[in-house]
Amino acid sequence: MKRILLIFLSASVVISCSKGNKGNAGKPGLKGELVPRGSSKSFIAERPYGMVSIPGGSFVMGMADQDFASTPEKAMPKTVTVSSFFMDETEITNAEYRVFINAVRDSIARGLLAEAAGEGGGDEGGNGGSIGDFAYASKKTGEEATPYQKFLESQGGRDGYDESKKLDWKVPLQYNTSAYPDEKYAEILESMYLPAEKRINNERIIDWSKIKYNYQWEDVVTAVKDKNRNANYLKKESIAVYPDTTVWVRDFNYAYNEPLFDQYFWHNAYKEYPVVGVTWDQARAFCDFRTKLKTDDNNSRKKKKQKAMRFRLPTEAEWEYAAKGGIQNATYPWGGPYLQDDRGCYLANFKPKRGSYIEDEKKGTYTYTAPVKKFTKNGYGLYDMAGNVSEWTESPYSNSAYEFSSSLNPSLSSSASKNDVRKTVRGGSWKDVGYLLMTGYRDWERKDSARSYIGFRTIQDIPTGAGKFKRNTR
C-alpha cells in the first residue's frame, strides 16, 4: 500500500511540473533538462500568392555569350552564390499596383474623416451613415486603455504608429457624391480632389500629388558598421505613389501615343499588363506596403503567425540568377541562342526589326507592352524575364560592381543603394532589339525617372532553415 502511494505521489509531482512549464511562469526547462518552449516542428515557408520559389545555387554572373558591342557595362564573368527566395512569376500588373494606390488613398481619406469625427457618436449601426462613424477605432470601443497604452501616454507617446489613431476599416467609404452621408463628409472627401479651376471638362479627379505613402526603413549596414543602432539610422520616406502616365508622350517625340496616356493605367483592357511609369522609389514603397499587408494579416489571426519576411526588389545577382531559369550560361531565359521557336514564333515581346515593332501578329508580337503570361515561362516558372518591360533591381549601377562585390549574395550596402542615383535595370523591353534581352546584359536609369518601358517585380527571402514550401492558395 505504501509503495502504491509513493508511485502516486511521484506521478503527481511530474504532472505538476509539466503544467508549470506551459506558460512564462516558473523555472525554465523541463525535468531539469534544457528544453526550449514552443513547437518542435520545423518552420515551413509559406509561398506567397503569385510567386514561385527559386532554389539557391551558384552560377556564372555576367555576359557569358559573345559581347558584340564590347561596352564596359558587360563586366567580366564571375561565379557567385545566391540564397533561396520567392519571386513574382510576372511583373507587377496595373491591377496589382492599383490595389496599392487605392489602399493609400483610402487610408488618407479615413484619417481625414477620423480627425473630423472627433469622439464619434455616429449611427448605431456604424455603417457610414454619418461622419461620426469614421472616428478612430479606440474612440468607438469605449474600452479602458491597456497598461501599455497608459505607459506610452505618460511618456508623451512614441514616434511612429499610434495605437490611439487606429483606423476603423470596417466602415465602408463612399466616393460617389450621391452617396455622401452628410455635408461634413462631403467637405472632407472633396478636399482630396482637384479644385474646380484645375479640372478638364469638369471631371472629378483625385489630386494624386496628395496621395503619399509614408514609411521608414533602417540602414542596418551603416548602423552595424558604426556599432550604434538607434533612431538616427531610421530613414523616413514620403512617396507620391501614382505612376507617371505622361511617360507615353514624353518618351517618344513625334509619335501618337495619347491613347495610352489616357487609358493604359486605368482602363480594364490593360489590367493584366505590366505597370510602367513607376520610379525606383515608388517600387520600393510598393514593397513596404506589401510587407505591411502580410504582417497585418499574420497579426490578425487568433494564433499569430511568424513575422512576415520582407518583400523587396531583387539584387542584380538575384535577378540574373532567376532569369537563367536554372540553365548555366543561358543566353536568354529559355536558354538560347535563338529568339524564335521551331515554329517561327517569337519567345519574348521585343522590337524584332528596325522600325518594325509588330512584324506578324501570328508570330506573337505586340506594338507596345503585352499582357503578362503571354510568352513561355522559363525553367523556374517565371514569365517575361526577357522583353515586355525592363525591371528595376535594388542594386546601384557601377561598371566595377562585379569586381568588388562579394561572391556570396553580392550586394552593395543599403546606404549606397539608396544614395546612388543610378540604378541597374535588367531584362530589355518591348522597344528594345533582341541583343538587349540577354540575361547578362546590364543597363541603368536614374532612380527618380519613370519610363514607359520599365516596370518591376518583387521577391521575398526564404529563411535558410526553412523546410519544404507551402503554397498560399488564398
TrEMBL record:
<feature type="domain" description="Sulfatase-modifying factor enzyme-like">
    <location>
        <begin position="214"/>
        <end position="459"/>
    </location>
</feature>
<dbReference type="InterPro" id="IPR005532">
    <property type="entry name" value="SUMF_dom"/>
</dbReference>
<dbReference type="Pfam" id="PF03781">
    <property type="entry name" value="FGE-sulfatase"/>
</dbReference>
<dbReference type="InterPro" id="IPR042095">
    <property type="entry name" value="SUMF_sf"/>
</dbReference>
<dbReference type="InterPro" id="IPR019866">
    <property type="entry name" value="Glid_motil-assoc_lipo_GldK"/>
</dbReference>
<dbReference type="GO" id="GO:0120147">
    <property type="term" value="F:formylglycine-generating oxidase activity"/>
</dbReference>
<dbReference type="InterPro" id="IPR016187">
    <property type="entry name" value="CTDL_fold"/>
</dbReference>
<dbReference type="InterPro" id="IPR051043">
    <property type="entry name" value="Sulfatase_Mod_Factor_Kinase"/>
</dbReference>
<protein>
    <submittedName>
        <fullName>Protein involved in gliding motility GldK</fullName>
    </submittedName>
</protein>
<feature type="domain" description="Sulfatase-modifying factor enzyme-like">
    <location>
        <begin position="50"/>
        <end position="105"/>
    </location>
</feature>
